[in-house]
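Issue 218. Parser rejects a valid record. Input:
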Amino acid sequence: MNAAGGVWQGGGRRIALYEVGMRDGLQAETAFVPTDEKIALIDALADAGMRKIEATAFVSPQAIPALRDASAVLRAIGRRPGVIYSALVPNAGGAERAIDAGADELNLVMSASESHNLANLKMTRAQSFAALSGVGLIARQARVRVNISLSCSFGCPMEGDMSEATVLDGCARFIEQFGAQGVTLCDTTGMAYPGQVFALTCALRARWPGTELTLHFHDTRGMGLANVMAAIDAGATRFDVSLGGLGGCPYAPGASGNVCSEGIAHALECMGYDTGIDLALLIAAAQRLPALVGHAIPSQIVQAGRRLDVHPPPSDLDAIRARAHARPRPRA
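Output the parser choked on:
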């Protein structure tokens, strides 16, 4: 870190923001966003500078009807050069469909928590690892990247805290036995806090310095940005974000949306970090969401604008100024 300003002075350092709203955000919505609108949003996110976009999930349409058009979306997006288009897959069938539709990366998910894994995936962690090993083989044969997202890395709503040893053991299986190129530590339920984030990030980076580490935070308890800054302080440079702050977890009551794409990009820009994001384009994309999902979105930047956005003064400001100047000067 910079000795003068520490984590608060970015000094042009690069932080990569990975967009997950088109999957993690939209899957939590009851309204079905039309396929052409999803495609337009993904293209807009790429144009705004997102270098990795989780475009959809190849899951049961009965379980997540909001993403039932996964193949159509992935086949029709604009494919900007240099952008990784990722897809979440739960099993071998989903992996084969995602690869056939042109996914650049498969994002595989299991939980650090046995209870959450059972509730979310209907399998024990051992069963999940065995199933995902088969998916990994399919990915290697197709020469497609694999990222592992470890849910509830910072706490489980049914079990409480996850120990550092439990999380690192889960990562070890995927990194050392599975050969995953990347690992995402997920704060699925918004239970993370900065000291915990700093310690776990340091531990993982020290043990596997060559693994691409991404952090995935929710803002459920108002600590999303603080957790991002704690992770940066520990040397992390990759973060999942969700357009408009959409998201949640059906098996974690009250677990509100992911950290907001435009909110995090705005904060990092203010501190001098380089995200490669065109913030105006990103905000414009987020402003399209309320009409598509049928409700207001959590984004404070969409509501209030950027820090230095200016507004017109009162129409009678000149008259107010004249009256102020006409008042007798106060005695010393």
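Fixed in the parser; the record now loads. The chain has a mean pLDDT of 94.
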